[in-house]
Specification:
This protein is an alpha+beta fold. The protein has one domain. It contains 2 helices and 3 strands; from the N terminus they run αβββα. A 3-stranded antiparallel β-sheet has the order 1-2-3. The radius of gyration is 12 Å and the shape is globular. The termini are far apart.
Length: 73
């Protein structure tokens, strides 16, 4: 659990979300979700290419929503 004043570990959120999405039909070809903290983007790497998702100023839950919406999961 994260206290309100603590910073969320967005890299860890991406790694765990990736594992969950790999268990689904819609994202079984997902290889990784790579968080770049400097650019505030997530790169979704698939077997056939990649997609970049802007997560600037997102909370952890907002980042999950943005990733899910962008990947149409």
């Amino acid at each position: 659990m994260v206290a309100a004043s603590d910073e969320e570990d967005k890299d860890k959120i991406c790694k765990l979300l990736c594992k969950v999405l790999q268990l689904t039909r819609g994202a079984s070809d997902l290889k990784s979700l790579d968080f770049n903290p400097d650019a505030e983007i997530v790169t979704a790497v698939f077997e056939g290419g990649s997609r970049t998702i802007n997560v600037a100023c997102d909370s952890g839950t907002a980042m999950i929503r943005d990733i899910m919406n962008h990947l149409e999961c």
